[in-house]
Amino acid sequence: MAPYLLTAGTKAWIASASLSFFALFTVGAVLSIFTARGPLLSGARMLGIGLLVSAITYSVGWLFGVSVVG
């Protein structure tokens, strides 16, 4: 959300997606401290789960005809 406070359009979308990817991967990598997995695998797993959930959320919104236009 923060990129949209500073800019708009495609730049904001790319910045927001990049920050989200980084945050998801970092949380997954840090969680590897508590599991027996490596940080690369754990980070990739968390990123994959985040991408899947965002795709499901987008699809449900699309099915219900929800649109957020700024």
Key features of this structure:
single chain, 3 helices, about 70 residues, mainly alpha, about 0% strand, flat
In short:
With about 70 residues, this protein is an all-alpha fold. It has 3 helices and no strands.
Question: What does it look like?
Answer:
The chain contains 3 helices and no strands. Helices cover 77% and strands 0% of the residues. The protein has one domain (2-64). The mean pLDDT is 91. The two termini are 13 Å apart. Helix 2 packs across helix 3. With 70 residues, it is mainly α. It has helices at 2-6, 9-31, 39-64.
In this structure, how is the largest beta sheet organized?
none
How many structural domains in the coordinates? 1
Portion in helices: over 70%
Number of helical elements: 3
Which structural class best describes the helix and strand composition?
A: mainly alpha
Tell me the distance between the termini. Answer: 13 Å
Order of helices and strands: HHH
Mean pLDDT comes to 91
Q: What fraction of the residues are assigned to beta strands by DSSP?
A: under 5%
Low-pLDDT windows of residues: none
CA radius of gyration is 15 Å
Number of beta-strand segments: 0
The shape, in one word, is: flat
